[in-house]
UniProtKB/TrEMBL annotation:
Residues 2-233 form the ABC transporter domain. Keywords: Amino-acid transport, ATP-binding, Nucleotide-binding, Transport. It comes from Paramagnetospirillum kuznetsovii. This is ABC transporter ATP-binding protein. Pfam families: ABC_tran (PF00005).
Amino acid sequence: MLHATALHTYYGASHVLHGIDFRVAKGETVALMGRNGMGKSTLLKSMLGIVAPRSGKVAILGRDVTGMETSAVIRQGIAYVPEGRGMFHNLTVREHLLMAARAGTDGRRDWTYERVLETFPRLAERLDNLGTHLSGGEQQMLSIGRALMTNPQLLILDEATEGLAPLIRRDIWHVIRAIKQTGIASIIVDKNVGVLLDLADRHVILVKGEVVYDGGPETLKSDSSILERHIGL
Ligand SMILES: Nc1ncnc2c1ncn2[C@@H]1O[C@H](COP(=O)(O)OP(=O)(O)OP(=O)(O)O)[C@@H](O)[C@H]1O
């Protein structure tokens, strides 16, 4: 589905990604892990063309998207929910959702307005509210709902549960599990390692812009020293 090879990314003179290989298979849930500042967001942004990698390649569904504008990369079937949610202050919940609606790259329209509202009943009760007048949890639901309206094949969630109350967080994880069941692939960055170990098919751990672990959850569960060393648990 997505395949990045030998990515090197710099911010000015600062070398942040050191030749990263990263892939996501169709329908696969990949947890991207690592301490603060290790390069997780930079890797996501490099693959999406938000930050230009100095070298390396990114392919989506076999198509080379290296160097493409972010909007063109996204149109290959990707929905990106960045840290911080990005609501428009002058649009209502209804407008945010309808504006995002489109068929998937394969023509699918599984995620309709009605289905998104069934998935997030709280949004259905707030259709006329401005996005910026929602609670943090509701904004996050709207962000994910908006992403689903594009019928993506790959959903990227960067810190989707950050700063949310435990009950709201639980609701968001519930929805993320439901999305996984529908066969949408995902890349999830999140600090809740316990949830990720149960949810993800594969885990990739970054340390200083390099991949130090790429494998299933079984090894991480049976050998706790890997998480202790690289995540600090
Ligand atoms: N726009 C930028 N300009 C310069 N340096 C940056 C920029 N964004 C990130 N960095 C630096 O690049 C490194 C990787 O940051 P990045 O945000 O990718 O890490 P992260 O693993 O996503 O961490 P976090 O969980 O804190 O977001 C850090 O040293 C950070 O300070």
